[in-house]
Model the fold of this input.
Amino acid sequence: MTISSFLSAPTLDAPLLHAEAARRLRTARPELAVRFDLATAEGLRAAHETVAQGQDAGCDTGGVAGDAPGVPTAGGSDELADVQAVVVLRSLDLASWLRGTCEFGLGLPPTSAAAWRRSFTRTVFLAGNPENLGARFVFDHVASDSSAAWIAPGPASETLALRRLLTVFHGTADLPRLPSGPVVLSAPTTGTGSVPAPLWPAVPHIAHVATAGSSLVDCLVDLNHLLAEAVLDGRVRPGDSLELRRAPVLSGVRGPFTAVRVMPDAADPGRLRARACLT
Amino acid sequence: MSVDVGVTTAVSARDADRAAPLPSRRVLIAPVTVTPTKPLTPSHLKGLLWTDVMFRATAQVADAEYRYSPTTYHLTEQTLGFWEFLDRVHGDTDFASLSETEIGDLYVGFRAEPERVPAAALRPYERAVEESGWVHPAASRMLAAWRGHYARLGMHDPGLTRHQPPGWDLDTMIDRLGALGMCLDLRRHGGPVYADATRFGMPLRTIVGADGRPNYLACALRELLPLSARHDEIVLLCDADLEPDYRLLQRVLEQAGPIVHRVTLGRVPIDGRIRSARAGDWHDLHAQALLDRAHESHGADNDAVRLGMRLYFIATLGPGSRQSFRADLLASCLDRAQRLLTYGHAEDPSRAEEFVGPFRAARGTAAYVDPYRLTSRLLARHRPPANRPVLEAVYL
Done:
């Protein structure tokens, strides 16, 4: 199997953003494609609003960062329960967090991954020290420096006790200093048995994040979704490396693109913005 | 009378074994500090009298220290915010000439302000307190008035008007808290600082806000953590509202070594309701008014007033919060005190340390004396009354 960049346009132009936003909605919630005409701007906007409203209406208490609906959308009798992953951060070491985010995703069993994808890779960011929590809670992945720990996607009720003990990760400062070099992703250490030697050459990825108008937490959310979905789609694999770059906006980034995170502009929902991308 | 909120202690067998023998145990008594923003209410008096008896009784049987530092808590939002408000809104007032109730009324005005000022507005005040021990004239006035009440009540003055800064600055405290594994510091990311006792199943608790403002708990940690190393046993006293904070404080101080006890006292309802300071709940029940009325009815008998107040606020009201304040019961305690002081024969012959010894808390394993059980003993009808030297040592 070879990795091919599926978004071969040279820049992040409007058609590409639209197509990618539609593709993401369609992949996670096929019924949205039936209900709305995702090819049109109005249809896409309506679909995004439905997703956002679902998040506001059915959500449990705070600590949620992400854009998954809290109640099932229309159509489909076999609704899967909404699931969310949890990441606990003692402090933000970007290299550690980037590696951990990818390796956590790489270690998820297929059914868990599918459910999470359907929930738009919803993730709760909590402030806490994994070293103080390990005796009471089971983490599915822990960063090697223990600065962050992840819990696999599950219903919100399963992490209620943890979410009551901790608090939402708050940070108004900028993203901290970027890692000095690329981060190498190793094979997952937990999961289903040993990992065979990779059959493909390692790919050096560059992750770009837009910082204008985004807080620290906004950037983390965007990178989280970008990387989680790229991992679940098989576009980022064990052995690959990841470099992080930031810029106020991503309009200057050259393709081809491995993945793009597109969201409606907060101030102008009819307009789409590239918040993060992988090249 | 029944007790609904009792004394809570946390003593592990391991700690009791290795603790110093009781008479030489170094005990630190640290009640919650009343901010000098309003007159002393019956609830305050109960806590202060409770602490005074505990301290003076414990001092008979252990090496007791009473830590009470308004200086430390001037840095809270409640106090600094009030000072900034006074200067901004009532800057031309001669605060030193105001009465306690007038200052209290201004405090109600402060709490009624719809918006808090930004942290930057409080920084000049914060700096002044930290750098030079500056105190706003309104606070000086209030604390001076309180010294007067303490003197009338025969209470030990733990340094109300003395400059008593906490042992550590904020950064040092955060650092040492981190060394205990109990701090989550997100300042680097523009976030708050939390005290982290999640290891013990307690939720994270903010001690410094994202705006850089430390709260009451941060001040208490700056004051008490450094003192922990010098004591074998610490007794924290607070009211029920502060219990979550104080449970956390207890856990943190325990990690630093000493045995830590926590005593929670219920507030004193007025006409069945516990009112908040915001509403101005003192009216004619504040310390000055109660003392003036007591002296009116019982003449120049200071001793009867001092003993009677303690009989009422400690033994009659008890540790809970079921009973509303009753002036008639206070008056009968003053009468009873007068009788106890003039009795003069068939008294218990015990010296002070023998008399108070059996009333050590935690079934005698703690070094500190339980004021409720001790004071109830004074009222016991079929036991010989306490002799004068005992009363003078602890109650007068």
Notes: Chain A has a mean pLDDT of 84.
